[in-house]
Batch of 2 targets.
Target 1
Amino acid sequence: MTQRREFLKFLAASPLLTNYSAFAQEVEQTLGQRLTDPSEVINVFEMEAIARERIPPAHLGYLSTGVDSDLTLRANRAGFSRFQIKPRRLVDVSQTDTMVNVLGSEASSPIFLCPVGSQGAYHADAELGTARAAAAKGHHMVLSTMSSTSVEAVAEARGAPIWHQLYSTNRWEYTVAMLQRAEAAGCTSVCLTIDLPGGRNTETDAVLRREDTRNCASCHAGQSKPMFEGFDMTGVMTSDAAMTWSVIARMKEVTDMNIVIKGVEVAADAALAVQFGADAIWASNHGGRATETGRGTIECLPEIVAAVNGRIPVIVDGGFRRGTDIYKALAMGASAVGIGRPYCFGLGAFGQAGVERVLDLLNRELLIAMRGSGTPTIDSIGPDYVLDAGYRVPRGRLGRELL
Ligand SMILES: Cc1cc2nc3c(=O)[nH]c(=O)nc-3n(C[C@H](O)[C@H](O)[C@H](O)COP(=O)(O)O)c2cc1C
């Protein structure tokens, strides 16, 4: 953080960049002090700036990191600029409806809360704050294997069926036990994350960890995730490098939950997921935290939707920060859109109230996009409303996220 602030100060002093960087510096340094009520926050980027002031450096590093040079992380944002909205006019948009139903889970908005681990690191409200915000706003929530809070407590706080995200360990009996525990807690679908078969290189995390002067060991020593309760995790991996598509059939033998395959990026894998019996596909590159492909998820979506050809729902996440981003994905054939960091910024900034504010902001922006495009319902948003311009706007000209 210090280095970043020093750098911003340096930029502010530069005659070339004075206007932009002076503003950026102010936003970066004082937004959290000036905006004390979540209702004052006008978009997700401001919420991020506040969260950056309030979350301790090492935890912020974990939340914000991509992998290697964070190219995929940035591609997730830049990818949206390739797609343009084609609005229609003089359609009655006085009544709007954003309800969706994916695999039997009804929600008042197509914006799903992605599984994000360790939410206790961002705010004491942790997953319970997220679940209560999701309940207050009618959003669907997916809980990580790596949650700071037990699946039973979160399911209760949400008050409606949540989905469980699974990292299969390399001990199958543990995987079975986690599936059965999630199902017993009332989860109706399980999202098997397949994009981390063996390690990742999270350098932004490593850099920010260096800046944290707290004694990490005193908090982290002996800590275990509630989902691993009762397991001897010595030598156990939280991914199974030997896993192949047959895992879907093996999971179906031990659970009645729907199986969602999370982490698909190409058409060939989308086709295989359908062939091997997946109930839905979640197009994702883990928020740019898995393989440094350089490809934004929104750019992967068209080939995945084409390969699935309507047979099962497709959910997508990665870089969604605006209602128009969500609109584009829906037009391209997604049944729902996941957000990860945005609601965690809300959580880190203001706890549950911050998550609620992020959901309000994105829902409002989505509704404006729907009305402005002549599409009053989610079903009415189809491929005619989006165009692939075939190029990305160069980074540096995308908008407020560059604060
Ligand atoms: C801090 C953090 C932790 C995450 N933990 C998990 C996890 O435990 N399981 C999982 O499947 N995905 C996890 N993800 C990925 C998200 O589910 C989602 O794919 C991603 O955050 C979407 O991108 P966005 O953050 O740009 O919205 C995590 C993402 C972040 C930022």
Target 2
Amino acid sequence: MAILTYRYRLKDATSSTHLLRLAWACHTVWNFCNEVSLLAWRRDKHCVSAFDLINLCAGAGHDLGLHTDTLSEICQEYARKKRLAKKIKLRWRSRKRSLGWIPFKGRCVRLREGAITSKGRHLRFWQSRPVGGTVKTGSFSQDACGHWYVNLQCEVETPGVPLGHAEIGIDLGLTHQLACSDMAAPYSRANLTRQHEDALAHAQRTHKKRRVTAIHARIANTRRDWAHKVTTAIVRRASLIVVGDVSSSKLRQTRMAKSVYDAGWSQLRTMLAYKAIRLGVTYRVVNESWSSVTCADCLARSGPRGLRALGVRGWVCPACGAVHDRDLNAAQNILRVGRDTLSGIP
Ligand SMILES: [Zn+2]
């Protein structure tokens, strides 16, 4: 069993007024929790729990037009956030600053083809793919552009046997985002941040806030779409996936910062991980140090080193004479390390 979140875009034209009103009600509940928690702390140094908050909110749902489950979900989420932040109070949620968020339980909604019924109200959405499994929880949420989405968290069956048989090592990079050990050509796309740089700068200079948000959303959407397509293609033909643990925090200080941000390594890794679990593919993250300088054939550490060597695409191993493509060689090394850890070799 695995939990998957399906996200669909709602048809705003018919539902946004209704959802905005509900979102306001949710903000009100949230702010009430905030107020109560602050007062309780000031008066008796008591930290209110989700249970206390749910009891205090009892009966408010009718006036606010919210389901009881929605109320308790908000209280629980508030308590959880407060515990994580280790604070007495959190930020207030306002209609202007905060994005709309309306949680619900799977048992209070009904799904039909392209529509969801919640508290007797039909909300239509673009059903880009079928919903699998049973809906446990979900929410309506708003993005920075003001578009509404419905998120459904479903419990789905996971098949035990993967679709493919390939063992794939993956090297995440900057020039080519993703190189696989079983493919000569890496997966590569244009640097999206750089592509939209001029338009973004112009919008920022002329203080066009909505345009800036729209461009950022476009970049994020394109990146996510590309990542989904590539990771799905990889997971479908694999039985073992090994990824390097390359971290962006070190490179963020250098002049590659923009490329690092654009590459979205953690997004790619997250997608690979959950898609691998879903299809029963073995997934490993390994330490990738030395992977780009080690020769995959003779294991000599003879490749080009240092940050400057990032520009070198290919090299010849002086020890054994093998010709290497930088990314492919690194991917092969990562796969070797992954196989070693699986078979217990340190
Ligand atoms: Zn060699």
